[in-house]
Amino acid sequence: MLDITDPARAGRMRNLTAEVIISGGGPVGLCLALLLAEQKIDVVLLEAEDDLVRDLRASTFHPPTLDMLERFGITATLLDRGLPCPSWQVRMHPTGERAVFDLSVLSGDTRHPYRLQCEQWKLSDALYAQLQQAPHADLRFSSRVVAAADHGDRVAVEVEHDGRREQLHAAYLVGCDGARSVVRGAMGLSLEGQTYPETTLLVTTQFPFEEHLEGLSNVTYFWKQNGNFSLLRVPGRWRASLYPDTTRSIDEQMTPGALDASLQEIVPRDVPYTFGEQRPYRVHMRMVDAYRRGRMFLAGDAAHINPPTGGMGLNGGIHDAFELAAALTDVLHNAAPDARLDLYDVRRRPIARDDILTQADRSRARMRERDPERRRALLADLQAICADRKKLHAHLLRSSMITGLRRAAAIG
Question: How far apart are CA 160 and CA 158, in angstroms?
């Protein structure tokens, strides 16, 4: 339960369920809840599922995200449960020609000059463990937000739990409820953009690709004849993203035999591959045209979704949480004017548009290139960047999301 024994807080909380209600208990919502609770802001987190979601979603953490999470001890937990990735690469298959991006050049810019490969549910676990000990946080599972309305002086949130509905009230409501966000709908906003025509096939396997592909990084993007694929390593397995043959149905290509044939093209074996997770997914590039409407806000996938190439989606959502938590803290506890909340939109939305979505789209387009000569030219350009420390440093500042964060921080 929330701790409202402080008289000043009790005054603010009169007739309110919480100062802030968060819809969505994924890593972005959990992170925002912890940041607010740390500042003694009373927060209720509502999650529709009956437990944390622990399926395989994002798995890449960039250096500044690790820097941000370090103060909670969460970075150390993730390092214990993940795989550091000191370099990533773009590579021709099967020849092995490659451009290798050495993240150690960022050692003067971050305390974590590497990517970390770690499933996002491990972040959720670590955040949840700390929130359970936070007196200002109230986590409610099996609680689905079905409607919300801004009444000027407060937000009313209608919640469904065990077949019953109740109305909660807060000073502010944040939608961290993903691509199908109910909060976004209540704000009268939509995700504008495009859905790419192709479908990606995700499959995991315990096969040790690193023992068969010389010099393989834990994050590698491949061109192959008439197609492309990527291999991302997480503890105990590799996740392969396969880009299918457009002349065959997705159902046909998701059969065990077809998935095995796709992996046999990567490393031929005398025996079939065994699989873990298997699923197709569509790739989108969409965002809203405002992160704030009155007393309601959006963060993470509720505000922006992008191609997974480059691993920026989850990281961008965590960065949203830190920026929004600072704005809400300034208004609720530091007597900042309401206009302070607009700075969240001003700082974060252009970065999502110009850095996260644009970079992800360019990376996707590069890997979708089919012309062999154009591929060689692209690889040569990337190798030239890797060979020039100054160019490599600038490139990795951008692709590791440091440049965007610095630019946002300079906006007053």
Answer: 7
Question: Do 407 and 347 form a contact (C-beta atoms < 8 A)?
Answer: no
Would you list the DSSP string of 224-258?
ETTEEEEEEEETTEEEEEE---TTS-HHHHTSHHH
- Between the CA of residue 372 and those of 143, 157, 224, 365, what are the distances in Å? 52, 55, 10, 14
Closest to 131 in 3D by CA, of 29, 8, 58, 236: 29
Does the pLDDT of residue 318 top 90, yes or no? yes
pLDDT in tens, 204-214: 999 999 999 99
- Mean pLDDT in residue range 285-304: 97
**The pLDDT of residue 292 is above 50:** yes
In the chain, pLDDT over 90 holds for what percent of residues? 84
State the pLDDT at residue 311. 85
The domain segmentation of the chain, as residue ranges, is 7-193+284-409
Cis check: omega of the bond before 113, within 30 degrees of 0? no
Architecture of the domain delimited by 7-193+284-409: 3-Layer(bba) Sandwich (3.50)
- Say if CB 329 and CB 344 are below 8 A apart: no
d(Cα 217, Cα 105) in Å, to the nearest integer? 17
pLDDT at residue 322 in the model: 98
Q: What is the pLDDT of residue 13?
A: 64
Exposure of 305 in the CB half-sphere (CA atoms within 13 A): 20
List the beta strands (DSSP E) in 141-245. Answer: 143-150, 155-161, 164-175, 192-205, 219-224, 227-234, 237-242
- What is d(CA 325, CA 115) in angstroms, rounded to the nearest whole number? 25
The span from the CA of 10 to the CA of 17, in Å, is: 11
Task: Give the closest residue to 106 by CA, choosing from 365, 410, 405.
Answer: 405
Helix 402-409 / helix 342-351 crossing angle, nearest 10 deg: 150
Average pLDDT over residues 400-410: 96
